[in-house]
Specification:
The protein is an all-alpha fold. The protein has 10 helices and no strands. 27% of the residues are buried.
């Protein structure tokens, strides 16, 4: 194996790849669509950071974003729909992996990473919903708190993740930090690791 193939760049962009892996039905581009959605989420999320205010002002700041700022509603809509697209495409991507049995050795670590990424994606979508503020987010936070509190040591976990939401508002500073920095950062890092592992394992497995 040459230096190019043994490097990180060589795994991400190899000189050779199986012809079958280039067929559309080998992947249906689901991994690519998931990553594209993540890029859109990152760009629109950074733009939303300039105006969004977590906590009691969350709902009001989003209402102002929709009505008063140029293209604010468009940016928010792109962020929302990219999040839904990512949940759907990551789930379908996992279905394709199971269907093609691409989780078997030597790709078992890819599968574990993908499962963790799916969990992070769902958590990002849920936390993003709570950050919208309003009664719906407050109700969703109440349900989430009750579920986590039922676990051993769940009260401390619920407080660390949710902060102190109210029945009328699920947006808190704790949830904001988890959504913007911890969950999003972990998802971005694991995606890069996932891509590297896919290439290291010989690329995708054609159906």
């Amino acid at each position: 194996m040459g230096k190019h193939e043994d490097s990180f760049a060589g795994h991400i962009r190899p000189r050779q790849i199986r012809a079958g892996a280039l067929r559309l039905r080998a992947t249906f581009c689901l991994g690519g669509f998931s990553f594209l959605a993540f890029i859109v989420l990152t760009i629109t999320g950074v733009l939303l950071l300039f105006y969004y205010q977590p906590g009691d002002s969350a709902f009001a700041s989003l209402s102002e974003l929709d009505s008063a700022l140029p293209y604010g509603g468009l940016i928010r809509s792109l962020h929302f729909w990219a999040g839904q697209l990512m949940v759907i495409t990551v789930f379908l991507h996992m279905v394709r992996v199971v269907w093609s049995r691409a989780y078997r050795p030597i790709r078992e670590l890819n599968w574990i990473t993908g499962v963790v990424l799916f969990g992070l994606t769902v958590m990002l979508d849920y936390s993003g919903y709570l950050l919208r503020g309003g009664q719906e987010s407050g109700a969703a936070a109440t349900v989430g708190q009750a579920l986590i509190t039922s676990l051993p040591g769940g009260k401390a976990l619920a407080t660390g993740f949710f902060g102190q939401p109210t029945p009328l508002n699920g947006s808190t500073l704790s949830m904001f930090v988890w959504h913007v920095f911890i969950l999003a950062g972990a998802a971005g890092f694991l995606q890069m690791f996932h891509f590297w592992r896919v290439r290291r394992g010989g690329g995708v497995r054609p159906l």
